[in-house]
Design a protein that fits this description.
binds beta-D-glucopyranose, about 375 residues, alpha/beta, 6-stranded parallel β-sheet
Length: about 375
């Protein structure tokens, strides 16, 4: 009996070891053929407007890159109208899209339609702008928006040499749409650099307009920016007071400021003006000295990252992220991929924009 038991035990151990061995050293799996990327699946891409160059470019980049990866793309632009964007997304869901990529017009207005997406099991990638207060948002792909703001703030600090020059210097502020969560990062990032100089009196804001809600611009519209600055100039600078700097969060608002200056500012001191996007139209202003800098966000890189995210989601893999602590949309942190923005001036635009193939020289001259 004892012998039989010992034999059984030995047999069990042999089997167990064999099983272990199999787990530890599996036979080489045959190389898996790459799954046909895309497979014709429908991806819905909702962009906010065609009015600003960047969104046309973002939309076209996304479409081209997704199609190259084998997806079918439904690309829509929302004409800066929330109801239009909502109905475009509803259609994408009804048409059976597998993933939604959305650059929102108003980050707070998509909760209901995105609840439908969630119900249908469609993952949502927030593109460039975070979609707020919706737990249907799976991922966020954008640029480091805080870094955009600090880059602009630091540019003004260094251009005016605020740490050494005597001053005081006059500055005015303008940012973008209050429904765009990005302005909290752009404006607050810039203010994290500039506020200490306002506090010490080295910087002075003659209009007194320094609050984000006051310096915001509906739809980032150039006309509205121009109208606000015409008022600021006539009320505070008509007597010859110099304006040394304007913190503008992007190129469309900077353009409004530059139009207002051209119409009604006569002082010889021309302000240091910041921007963002390297819009084709403002490159002329940059080269001719009407705008000191812009922040270049290579939308090709962002589109490529989103395509990687879509691909991973379609294959049930983990999309690439490099930030899991910054972007809370009110329902929790949204895992994000942040691309890097770069300061662009007359000194490096050739290398950044032309040599890299982003624009041809013709497009910006
Ligand atoms: C984008 C900027 C753009 C602005 C106006 C923001 O959400 O991040 O690049 O200039 O919208 O379209």
């Amino acid at each position: 009996m004892k012998k039989l038991f010992a034999l059984l035990l030995a047999l069990c151990m042999i089997f167990a070891l064999a099983a272990c061995g199999q787990q530890a050293a599996p036979a080489e799996a045959p190389a898996e053929a790459e799954a046909p990327a895309g497979d014709g699946s429908l991806v819905g891409v909702a962009m906010p407007t065609k009015d600003l160059q960047r969104w046309n470019q973002d939309g076209e980049n996304m479409k081209a890159q997704l199609e190259a990866a084998g997806y079918t793309v439904d690309l829509q632009f929302g004409a800066n109208d929330i109801a239009t964007q909502v109905s475009q997304i509803e259609n994408m869901i009804a048409n059976g899209c597998k993933v939604l990529v959305i650059a929102s017009i108003d980050g707070d207005s998509l909760g209901t339609v995105l609840a439908q997406a969630k119900e249908a099991g469609i993952p949502v990638i927030a593109y460039d702008r975070l979609i707020m207060n919706s737990d249907a948002v799976s991922y966020y792909a954008t640029f480091d928006n805080w870094l955009v703001g600090t880059t602009q703030g630091e540019f003004i600090r260094d251009a005016l040499d605020l740490d050494n020059a005597e001053g005081p210097f006059n500055i005015e502020f303008i940012t973008g749409d209050p429904g765009d969560n990005n302005i909290n990062f752009f404006f607050d990032g810039a203010m994290s650099i500039l506020q200490p100089y306002l506090d010490s009196g080295k910087l002075v804001c003659p209009s007194g307009q320094t609050e984000k809600a006051v310096v915001a611009t509906a739809n980032w519209a150039t006309d509205a920016a121009q109208a606000r600055f015409e008022n600021i100039l006539s009320s505070n600078y008509a007597d010859g007071t110099p304006l040394h700097a304007v913190l503008a969060s992007n190129d469309s608002t900077a353009q409004g400021v530059e139009n207002a200056l051209a119409a009604s500012y006569t002082n010889d001191v021309y302000p240091v003006i910041t921007g963002q996007d390297c819009d084709m139209a403002i490159m002329k202003n940059l080269v001719e000295g009407r705008q000191a800098m812009s922040v270049f966000k290579d939308t090709r890189t962002l589109a490529a990252k989103v395509v990687e995210m879509v691909d991973a989601l379609m294959k049930g893999a983990e999309p690439p992220v490099n930030d899991t602590k910054t972007y809370d949309n009110g329902t929790g942190i949204i895992p994000s991929f942040l691309c890097s923005p770069v300061s662009c001036t007359v000194d490096n635009y050739q290398e950044l924009l032309i040599d890299s193939g982003y624009y041809t020289l013709d497009q910006i001259s």
